[in-house]
Structure prediction request, 186 residues.
Amino acid sequence: MNLDIGEKIKELRTKNNLTLNDLSSRTNLSIGYLSQLERGLTSVAIDTLDNIAKALGVTIYYFLSKPKNKKNFILRSYEREVLEVENNRIIQIQLTNDIEGKNLLPRIFEILPSSSDEEITSYPHIGEEFVYVLEGILTLLIDKERYELFPGDSAHYSSNREHNWTNNTNRIVKILTVHTPNLFKK
Prediction:
């Protein structure tokens, strides 16, 4: 996902004849950060991506894969679709048919194992998050503290706190999440 977003940012920036310095001035983000973002070397918080989108004259939806919207409030298990695959390690599965106009964004994430010595970047953004561990052991980072969550454990926190999560085991971790705001709400 980071590389896809970065490529889209670079494509729009060059299409608009903007340098990294120009975009930096418009967004108050460092040139180094923007360069890393364009190369897919760092992640971006939703509010930062929204800031970049406005500076480039598009909406945030330009950078996000929009889920299919069906006006049925029931989604059968066999109808679920993969919303996105991030870095070949995190699979997002859509849990609702009718995503537009809703405040909540429910998803299941399947997180493949990663090395415990990989650096995990925590970031804040607007909204709140609820995480429920279905399978495996999730490492949750909040305000530089690490928490191990086991099946049946949950966490509910304000997204404006520095946070992220990862899988430092050798087994798949599956979590149910509910986020606000719903990025796909119109």
In short: The helical segments are 2-15, 20-27, 31-38, 46-55.
